[in-house]
């Protein structure tokens, strides 16, 4: 290990928003990322047009925010820089119906997540640039940070560079939405997609909730009260993660008692053992060989039967009912509740 980063990191000085001076940027979608990108671009002086379907609930919001709105097809026609910020599961159909027929040579097609490109669901023509600017944060924070003159770290990748300016243009975009204020890490579509899917499945979303549920069930099944189990296995997790976020594992270990540190260091690897590591490797393999994405595409085509069932089972878990009751009884939860719902990591 060295203390050098293995990849390029870009800051404000490496980017020039005026690269986009003669350009119109179409932002397709006005959800979590879309509203933040469109407003930040607009306030950075970039000419923006928001692409939304007729009758889309987001239309009023975009117009009330002072932005120009058109259909996705019309927005792509008017723009030379197309930022695709509709949900990943509809991108292929939006591409086929609204984007592809209106793309021109030299246009930039940009994503905030590489799923559809990496797994071949969208195959752009060779005469357009294909890039990615992916803020590493939910959209409401991308917006709030920009308004507070702060930045949001992001990833940048170039999949296809026909004009020779793909990187320069993506950097200008990243600067206009505030990402180069914090730092933008260079990556590629494969690394971004596969590491993102792995992180959310194995650790952040899947791994953590499963660890919490198993811990909770172990205590409750052994006769401890559900309320105590909820606090020990779920509620305190936030305090631990905040310390890790601030100063890595070291700050967390420094802050807990010696008893907690010794117990955790001596027992942690017994709980999450080699078998879990093997499961992680299998999960990564399903991501790398496309099995996960194939399953997810078919699941959507079939109307999401398994997804709906898994969601319901998760909602029905006892820890949710106990948690809801406790959060109502105690005053701590209010200030920490997120501003908006966000289903993407
Ligand atoms: P979202 O679900 O919040 O917003 C979707 C928007 O697209 C809405 O405005 C909706 O009205 C519109 N839309 C939905 N279906 C449409 C259709 N068929 N045609 C046109 N418009 C349609 O989406 P999001 O979470 O902002 O995700 C957008 C992209 O950003 C995805 O590629 C996602 O992976 C990526 N991303 C998201 C986050 C995040 O935290 N949310 C972080 C990084 C990257
Ligand atoms: Mg155009
Ligand atoms: Mg992620
Ligand atoms: Mg304790
Ligand atoms: Mg993700």
Automatic annotation (TrEMBL):
Q: Name one Pfam family in it.
A: KARI_N
* Reactions accelerated catalytically: (2R)-2,3-dihydroxy-3-methylbutanoate + NADP(+) = (2S)-2-acetolactate + NADPH + H(+); (2R)-2,3-dihydroxy-3-methylbutanoate + NAD(+) = (2S)-2-acetolactate + NADH + H(+); (2R,3R)-2,3-dihydroxy-3-methylpentanoate + NADP(+) = (S)-2-ethyl-2-hydroxy-3-oxobutanoate + NADPH + H(+)
Using the record's annotation, list all stretches that form the KARI C-terminal knotted domain: 188-333
Name the residues that bind substrate.
257
Q: Work out whether the entry's keyword set contains Metal-binding.
A: yes
All copies of domain KARI N-terminal Rossmann, residue ranges: 7-187
E.C. number: 1.1.1.86
| Record bears the keyword NADP | yes
SUPFAM superfamilies in the cross-refs: 6-phosphogluconate dehydrogenase C-terminal domain-like (SSF48179), NAD(P)-binding Rossmann-fold domains (SSF51735)
Residues bound to Mg(2+) 1: 196, 200
Residues recorded as binding Mg(2+) 2, renumbered to this chain, are 196, 232, 236
Q: Which residues does the record give as NADP(+) binding sites?
A: 30-33, 53, 56, 58, 139
Keyword terms: Amino-acid biosynthesis, Branched-chain amino acid biosynthesis, Isomerase, Magnesium, Metal-binding, NADP, Oxidoreductase
What are the catalytic residues?
A: 113
Q: Which GO terms describe its biological process?
A: isoleucine biosynthetic process; L-valine biosynthetic process
Name any cofactors this protein relies on. Mg(2+)
* Family from the record: Belongs to the ketol-acid reductoisomerase family.
**Role according to the record:** Involved in the biosynthesis of branched-chain amino acids (BCAA). Catalyzes an alkyl-migration followed by a ketol-acid reduction of (S)-2-acetolactate (S2AL) to yield (R)-2,3-dihydroxy-isovalerate. In the isomerase reaction, S2AL is rearranged via a Mg-dependent methyl migration to produce 3-hydroxy-3-methyl-2-ketobutyrate (HMKB). In the reductase reaction, this 2-ketoacid undergoes a metal-dependent reduction by NADPH to yield (R)-2,3-dihydroxy-isovalerate.
Record's protein name:
Ketol-acid reductoisomerase (NADP(+))
What organism, scientifically named, is this protein from?
Natronorubrum tibetense GA33
């Amino acid at each position: 290990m060295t203390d050098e980063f293995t990849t390029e990191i870009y800051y404000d000085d490496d980017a020039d928003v005026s690269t986009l001076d003669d350009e119109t940027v179409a932002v397709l979608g006005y959800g979590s990322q879309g509203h933040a990108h469109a407003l930040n671009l607009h306030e950075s002086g970039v000419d923006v047009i928001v692409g939304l379907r007729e009758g889309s609930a987001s239309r009023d919001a975009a117009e009330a925010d002072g932005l120009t709105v058109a259909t996705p097809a019309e927005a792509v026609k008017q723009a030379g820089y197309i930022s695709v910020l509709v949900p990943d599961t509809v991108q292929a159909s939006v591409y086929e119906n609204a984007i592809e027929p209106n793309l021109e040579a030299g246009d930039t097609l940009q994503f905030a997540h590489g799923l559809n490109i990496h797994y071949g669901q969208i195959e752009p023509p060779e005469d357009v640039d294909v890039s990615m600017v992916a803020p590493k944060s939910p959209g409401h924070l991308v917006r709030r940070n920009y308004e507070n003159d702060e930045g949001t770290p992001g990833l940048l990748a170039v999949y296809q560079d026909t004009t020779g300016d793909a990187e320069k243009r993506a950097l200008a975009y990243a600067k206009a939405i505030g990402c180069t204020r914090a730092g933008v890490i260079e990556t590629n579509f494969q690394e971004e997609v596969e590491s993102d899917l792995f992180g959310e499945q194995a650790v952040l979303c899947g791994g953590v909730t499963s660890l919490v549920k198993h811990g909770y069930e172990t205590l409750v099944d052994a006769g401890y009260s559900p309320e105590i189990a909820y606090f020990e296995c779920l509620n305190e997790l936030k305090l631990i993660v905040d310390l890790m976020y601030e100063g890595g594992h070291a700050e967390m270990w420094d802050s807990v008692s010696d008893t907690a540190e010794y117990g955790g260091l001596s027992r942690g690897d017994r709980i999450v053992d080699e078998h879990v590591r093997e499961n992680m490797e299998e999960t990564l393999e399903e991501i790398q060989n496309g099995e996960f994405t194939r399953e997810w595409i078919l699941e959507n085509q079939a109307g999401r039967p398994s997804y709906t069932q898994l969601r319901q089972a998760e909602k029905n878990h006892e820890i949710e009912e106990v948690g809801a009751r406790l959060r109502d009884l105690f005053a701590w939860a209010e200030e920490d509740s997120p501003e908006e719902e966000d289903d993407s990591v």
